[in-house]
């Protein structure tokens, strides 16, 4: 079984170097695609739990422009994030760092990136897991793009107060302070360009892209602002299994880890 400590690697892609955490085990690999504006460290507790309690290996990537991966200077598309992530996965397979039996898990924006990888590479990706999906119709995308802030901080410490309140002060009950602080500092790494991922998501036409996904797909919903968007997204997916987490109040990858691991293990083992 896994030692539970990740191995840190860098791989080259056409958009720059990507930082990778590999949680080794003997079985098939689940690649976790993080929500923006965080990085792959968002999944640390989940990946450790998954590799301890199951036979699966896990990988969490830092998308280009996030975490310890190479910075980018202009917004890119969901397809671009998907392409660079695919190149990273292929590099890990080619060096036998991970199994060539690969499934994807995405959360929030990571779900859209997982969708795009699955569409483009049905021969590479076996299964998909969406832990919520940020489905926005045309009107909502236009509204979100119109209100997207591209400047988050200035030389006044007060400019960080809303981020601190959301991530730390008002975190879900039960999320440890240390974990919330890690998420806060994670956002600070990408503070200038953290909005790039939102820009990509708000330009992504999910209603056209989701029906193209053919792999078995597990949709895990929670009680959040994405509850209804996730239900809408599920209507566009061909080969799906839909489930809902119980007793959620935010921080699901810390507070509902057992449920997510159990559902993922059952789904991947049966497909």
What do these coordinates show?
This protein is of the alpha/beta class. It has a single domain (7-269), classed as Alpha/Beta hydrolase fold, catalytic domain (Rossmann fold, 3-Layer(aba) Sandwich), CATH 3.40.50.1820. The protein is built from eleven helices and eight strands. It has helices at 44-53, 78-94, 109-120, 138-146, 161-169, 177-189, 196-202, 206-209, 227-234, 252-255, 257-269, and strands at 7-13, 16-23, 29-33, 57-61, 102-107, 125-131, 217-221, 240-244. A hairpin with a 2-residue loop joins strand 1 and strand 2. The longest helix is centred in the first third of the chain and has 17 residues, at 78-94. It starts with 6 loop residues before the first strand and ends with a helix.
Summary, kept brief:
Helix content is 39%, strand content 18%.
Query: How many distinct beta strands?
Result: 8
Percent in strands? 15-25%
Report the sheet with the most strands, covering strand number, pairing sense and barrel closure.
8 strands, mixed
Return the string of H and E elements: EEEHEHEHEHHHHHEHEHH
Return Rg in Å: 17 Å
- Continuous helix count: 11
């Amino acid at each position: 079984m896994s030692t539970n400590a990740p191995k840190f690697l860098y791989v080259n892609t056409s958009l720059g170097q990507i930082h990778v955490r590999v949680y080794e085990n003997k079985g098939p690999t689940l690649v976790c695609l993080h929500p923006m504006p965080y990085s792959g460290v968002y999944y640390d507790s989940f990946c450790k739990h998954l590799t301890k309690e199951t036979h699966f290996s896990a990988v969490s990537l830092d998308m280009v422009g996030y975490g310890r991966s190479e910075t980018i200077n202009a917004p890119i598309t969901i397809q671009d994030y998907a392409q660079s992530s695919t190149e990273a996965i292929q590099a890990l397979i080619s060096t036998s760092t991970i199994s060539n039996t690969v499934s994807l898990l995405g959360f929030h924006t990571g779900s859209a990136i997982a969708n795009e990888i699955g569409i483009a590479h049905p021969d590479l990706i076996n299964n998909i897991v969406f832990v919520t999906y940020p489905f926005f119709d045309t009107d909502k995308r236009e509204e979100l793009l119109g209100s997207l802030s591209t400047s988050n901080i200035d030389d006044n410490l007060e400019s960080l107060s809303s981020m601190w309140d959301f991530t730390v002060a008002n975190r879900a009950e039960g999320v440890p302070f240390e974990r919330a602080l890690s998420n806060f500092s994670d956002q600070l790494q990408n503070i200038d360009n953290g909005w790039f991922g939102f820009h990509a998501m708000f330009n992504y036409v999910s209603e056209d892209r989701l029906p193209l996904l053919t792999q078995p797909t597990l949709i895990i919903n929670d009680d959040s602002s994405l509850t209804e968007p996730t239900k809408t997204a599920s209507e566009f997916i061909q080969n799906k299994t839909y489930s809902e987490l119980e007793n959620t109040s935010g921080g699901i990858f810390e507070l509902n880890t057992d449920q997510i691991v159990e559902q993922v293990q059952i789904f991947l083992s049966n497909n």
